[in-house]
Amino acid sequence: MTQAFRLEFQRFMMEYQFAVDEILTKVSILREEFLYLHKYNPIEHITSRVKTPESIMRKMRQRNIHPSLSAIRENISDIAGVRITCSFVKDIYKVLNTLTAQNDIRVIQIKDYIKNPKPSGYKSVHAIVEIPVFLSDGPVNVIVELQIRTIAQDFWASLEHKIFYKYEGEVPAHLASELADAAAVATKLDMQMQRLHTEVHGHDANHETVPGQEVDADVIQGLFMLAKEASSGKDHHDKNKLQ
């Protein structure tokens, strides 16, 4: 029984890792497309993680979740997590909308902590999504938590996490107050950087020029001529078939 459960739990954890891999692939494709086709990359960094079994067990105890894989799957939505760091606030919504518009991603919940920050000052957009993972015996739908934030928001959140961890959630009042002030500064920085970016590049950020794989004009012309010849040959063949 123990050996069977161990194998089942390992498969359970693998499903979440595969789901993370699927999301990372999608984000990487978007990143490349933005970079090479639109000449603009709204994605600065991508990180991911799958909770350890120990972390899952702690959350089970905290929430009094029944010790079964089905109960864990149903009640814990952040086992798999992907964090996307963007340059500007508007990029957050661009990436979110582009990802969630894909027909194999089902949006379960979106929490917008940018429009509605937490009392601590925390800002980010969280999306709980479901994505199919295709295994040897068929697809399994797996939940992944997406966190999308700016560089300034990510820096602030990282510092907040370290402080809360050190004080085990009981942060002294003066530090909590300074954190709130720092969150306001981060918001101001985001707005100022966006204004500077817009002033330099205009409202259409796609004017930004980045190194890309440009295709030689002669190659394009050659491909066009080949396509034209092939089309002409096909038309001639079709006419002969009709005669």
Plain-language structure description:
This protein has 243 residues and is an alpha+beta fold. The protein is built from 7 helices and 5 strands. A 5-stranded mixed beta sheet has the order 1-2-5-4-3. Strand 4 (125-135) and strand 5 form a beta hairpin. The chain is flat, with a radius of gyration of 24 Å.
Write the layout of secondary structure elements.
Elements lengths: L1 H35 L6 E8 L2 H11 L5 H7 L4 E7 L2 H12 L5 E7 L12 E11 L2 E13 H16 L6 H29 L15 H26 L1
Parallel strand pairs: 2-5
Antiparallel strand pairs: 1-2, 3-4, 4-5
Helix pairs in contact: 5-6
Q: Which structural class is indicated by helix and strand composition?
A: alpha+beta
Overall helicity: 55-70%
Largest sheet entry:
5 strands, mixed
What's the order of the H and E elements?
HEHHEHEEEHHH
Q: Taking Cα atoms only, what radius of gyration do you get, to the nearest Å?
A: 24 Å
- Could you give the order of strands across the largest sheet? 1-2-5-4-3
How many β-strand runs? 5
Termini separation (Å)?
Answer: 74 Å
Brief rundown of the structure:
The chain is of the alpha+beta class. It is built from 7 helices and 5 strands, in the order αβααβαβββααα.
Characteristics:
single chain; 56% helix; 5 strands; alpha+beta
